[in-house]
Amino acid sequence: MSEVHILPHYKYGWVAAMFITPSPSPSFSTSSAMAFISSNLLPICISLLLFFNSVYSFDYFQMVLQWPPATCKTKDVVCYTAPPKMFTIHGLWPSYFSGDMVVCTSKPKLDPTKQLAPLKTQLEMYWPDVISGDHETFWKHEWDKHGKCSLFTQYQYFEVSLRIRLNSTFNIISHLECRPS
């Protein structure tokens, strides 16, 4: 079962989160969620929450997507080019139910030239740095801040993120029954 919720977020103000849960819980209706999103001028980030067994050092993954046109309209943000009109990946974040930040242990630094070469075309399309266009620096930042905490190798972290983004089961637009403008 999947539901869309509007939730406060420490960094983005509000996010629309898609929960994949085994049992019903209170949620906004699709129409009220879209009314809230469309009236909110903050960047829209979408979190797909993937829940895991407590064997790992975190509770679940958030698949955080952003709507680039909203990101580029944020105060003091000037994007390097016209933003794509589709949800793009912001990151795959290991998270705790408490809301505390997961602190990463050290793993090797990311070298996108070597590690991500087979994925580069897809990453540039679905995981771009819409503000500066420096995609590799953005990918390094996401790996250092979130990927190192995951149970994945560098390649797996980015490949899994792309697979989730491209999987029609997790298409946030189809769950919202609309297309943002």
Automatic annotation (TrEMBL):
Which stretches are transmembrane? 33-56
Q: Which InterPro entries match?
A: RNase_T2-like (IPR001568), RNase_T2-like_sf (IPR036430), RNase_T2_His_AS_1 (IPR018188), RNase_T2_His_AS_2 (IPR033130)
Q: Which family does it belong to?
A: Belongs to the RNase T2 family.
Gene name on record?
LOC111449386
Query: Can you supply a Gene Ontology BP term from the record?
Result: RNA catabolic process
Sorted UniProt keywords: Endonuclease, Hydrolase, Lyase, Membrane, Nuclease, Transmembrane, Transmembrane helix
An example molecular function term from Gene Ontology annotations: ribonuclease T2 activity
Which SUPFAM superfamilies does this UniProt record tie to the protein? Answer: Ribonuclease Rh-like
The record, for PANTHER family, names:
RIBONUCLEASE 3, RIBONUCLEASE T2
> What is the name of the protein in this document?
Ribonuclease 1-like isoform X1
Statement: the UniProt record of this protein carries the keyword Hydrolase? yes
Q: Which domain of life is it from?
A: Eukaryota
The keyword 4Fe-4S appears for this protein:
no
Record's GO cellular component terms: extracellular region
Against Pfam families, the record matches this protein to: Ribonuclease_T2
